[in-house]
Known about the structure:
By secondary structure, chain A is an alpha/beta fold. Helix content of chain A is about 40%, strand content about 25%. Chain A folds into two domains: about 1-235, Rossmann fold; about 240-360, Heat Shock Protein 90 (2-Layer Sandwich), CATH 3.30.565.10. Chain A has helices at about 40-45, 70-75, 95-105, 110-125, 140-150, 170-185, 195-200, 220-225, 230-235, 255-265, 270-290, 330-340, and strands at about 1-10, 15-25, 30-35, 55-60, 65, 80, 155-160, 190, 205-210, 215-220, 240-245, 300-305, 310-315, 345-350, 355-360. In chain A, strand 9 and strand 10 (about 215-220) form a beta hairpin. Among the domains of chain B are: about 125-275, D-Maltodextrin-Binding Protein, domain 2; about 305-510, MetI-like (MetI-like fold). Chain B is of the alpha/beta class. Classes of the chains: A alpha/beta, B alpha/beta.
Amino acid sequence: MIEFRHMQKAFGTSVVLKDINATVNEGDSIAVIGPSGTGKSTLLRCLTYLDPPTGGQIFVDGEDITAPGCNIYKVRQKMGMVFQSYNLFGHMTVIENIMYAPVKLLGMSRQDAYDRGVELLKKVGLADRTLKYPEALSGGQKQRVAIARTLAMDPEIILFDEPTSALDPTMTGEVEAVIEDLARAGKTMMIVTHEMNLAKRVANRVFYMDEGIIYEDGPADQIFNDPQREKTSRFVRKLKVLEFNIDSHGFDFVGASTEIDRYCFKNHIPLKTSNKIRSVIEELCVQILLPVVKDPGINVCVEYSEEEEYTIITVKYPDRFRPEDSGDSGEDLSYRLLKANTESIDYSYDEAEGSTIVMKLR
Amino acid sequence: MRKRNKLKIHSGLAITLAILMSFIGISGVFVTAASEDGGTRVPVYKNLEELSGKRVGVQVGSVFDKIVEEAIPGASVEYYSTFPDEINALKASKLEGVACVESVIIQLQAQDDSIAYIEEPIGAVPLGFLFPKNEKGKKLADQMSEFLTNMRESGEMDRLMAVWNETDESLKPIEDYKSLPAENGTLTFVTEGTFPPFDYFREGELVGYDVDVAIRFCKEYGYGIELKDMNFDALMPAVQSGKCDFAASGIAITEERKEKVYFSEPDYYQDAYVVVLAADRSGGSFISSLKDSFNRTFIKEHRYRLFLKGIWVTLAITVMSIIFGTLLGFILYMWCRKGGKPANAITRFCIWLVQGMPAIVLLMILYYVVFGKADIGGIGVAVIGFTMTFAASVYSMILSGVRAVDFGQTEASYALGFNDTQTFFGIILPQAARHFMPTFKAEIVTLIKATAVVGYIAVQDLTKMGDIVRSSTYEAFFPLIAVAVMYFVLAGLLKLVANKLTASVDPEKRSEEKILKGIKTK
């Protein structure tokens, strides 16, 4: 149905996609995953020609869309795109947003388009919002309307570009449910997402993207449970997640704790664990390290693996200082608290890198 | 929403009225009825020496500045663009004296008993007709000189001057110039009609000594004549650019001017004096002076007709400029959208040019330079000029309006399969319109006010008509406030129309029925 042949995409001198080769078949529900900046969204945007590829070919139903003279507007009608930021037409009501393209592009009668629109709105659970303007809807509702708008054109494939990233965590569920319904109905689709839950729920095939290529392409079960390649494995197991720097003695720890809480909430980390994470960072960084280091340049990185339910907190700083060396009693108490909350604490020092503490929590 | 708007209109009117009343209150002090006797009045200053160190008004473009400097050492010369402005400044104590010629003082004193003059003349001024410096101008100047010499020798000139120096308008007939046979072609004569008794408006028609002489000359030499009114400082450029065949407006003959235009023999020598306030001037009561002002401004000589004509001209220029300017601005935008770098560079340069200069300068350049030789009237040039300025604003408006629409809208439209044109007209423009409509409405009000400068290119709009009326009544406040109120009303009306129009195209103001037109909802 869709075939990428040595497709390339560069923005100026930076090559984002080096060599993309893949075939998408009917009924495929592909989750496109991978670290940030590896060109996942760019892949979809090249396919829809919103960002024209700079090399190679893309075939849609056998037609080379990179060939000059190809009517890209017709090709786009076969592909529906759902954007991260919804992009509903602000000057139209919900029903008009859905009716607009079928009436203008497919020549559907207004009555038919309306009936179909209402049917689609029922499907996404928004039948009572037909005459509202987008600005009156919540994020989740907007995204569901956007999906209905895409469906109204009856596309052969639906492309989701991070459909839940802009949403409040409380609203991702309603959108994910709609996408899951579509997947279950056998709709062909590609989803670029950071939400592993969503990927697992809807995908029957996964593209893991890294190094400018589709690094690993396989059935969802295999990629998530038994990835064949090293980088995929690391990515699927671990979620490197939260990173911040403590760069002054007057560091805003209240702000940082809020940041940690938000991160834990978003990644469904149990409350007990999230309390531990916060406590460990506070004891180590604020109570032990901050008073002794001369030039604060403390880097904190929290990685949480949902798979194996453990958290690794890595703290790096330039001074050569072991946390257990903290002399007086107050800090000694902090160190004991630290020990109580962690499974292991490993200290290492390297001339170039400085001190590194790796703590494991369970 | 509607209620709040009404409230706004009401409070706006109340404020306007309050300002109006306070102005009339002030003007009441200065406005005085014309006295019947017209006998000699005692001036505040008896001789010229007393004016040393005082402010004396002269008209821009006249020769009085040099005369005053010579005759009254130590006086500071202040420039005003019309004679009535000088008189109003005198009455408002912004000036201590105003230089002018004898005939003007006679007319002035008949109108206003607060005016006197210092009996010592400050000099003699030869007044003449101006002709363009070309072959035709030379020929006409010679003919006019011949005509004037004959008139002087036969005593006709003095007789005619005496007629125009009368203070009773019914004694000053003017010939029907429109039916002159014109076997040698028709000449265009321009003057500034705020200068009685030489050139002024009576019953909406240009009359006066200069006009009378010009008509008699044309009759004698077989020309037809067309009369045109223009701002005083625009007269010289009008003659130089050949926009007219000859001009006069109590213009003094000087060596400097002779380099640029041909002069006829003087059509009269006049002594110049300094007008000052009378020592024993009286003030009228507030109500009677208000009634008197109203009568003189609107009723006398059917002057309301002048205002109506002015309103019509102002409205016509504004509305046409809005329509053409919007179209042109839109076309420019569309051209630049597709035109790439050269189109954008050209457009940006033109807009920079148009927006970078005052509207008056643009109009003068268009009138005297660009269309100097073309046969386009002042109104046409005004519409062209304001179309350009309005188009520049419309272009900028659309540009910023379109930029304000999130690019995601374009991408979503493309992704659905719409092409560029469909996307622009169906998705982007309607949303951009919501951003620029408020500015558009504000620009309309700005435009109608900006048109007030068209008097410089011989267009008699509302402001110019106000000037003409003021030149007959020597009164600043009442005609000015009347004009201000008329502008308020006109701007209000245009805004109302614009509001109705924008509301009818605003997608969010549509009713449910309209949105679902032709659809059965079950």
